[in-house]
Amino acid sequence: MAASVTFENDDAVEWLEAFESDGLASVQTALDQLLEMEATDYIEGTDAAHGLAAAEMVAAARDDDTSRLPKSALGGFKEHKGEIADADLAAGARKVVARILKNSELKDEAEAGDDAEEWVDNVRELLERLKG
Question: Which residue ranges make up each domain of the chain?
């Protein structure tokens, strides 16, 4: 499987820099920011990109499948994997991903472009991995 379309987004790639240095804290911050919003709030693109990137890290830490992560993130992932896996983040990550799939700028951008189906499939696959 190729890297996730999540990391084709500049905001997600930018988030990876914070992840490399901050690890678990950057994951929790990205997820908490969206979990603290009202369930019906519209999620801006940057926040959605950070949330999906964080959820990808949680999923990879849980199932040890790093194929959806960019190669540049693997060093930081290996360094922080244990603390991410130990923190109980999957339920929150699932909520974040479901909200992004329902009501976000990223969803709207995907639907306006040519890659709507690929984006939705990618996000649904992430959601499934978080349930596992």
Answer: 5-131
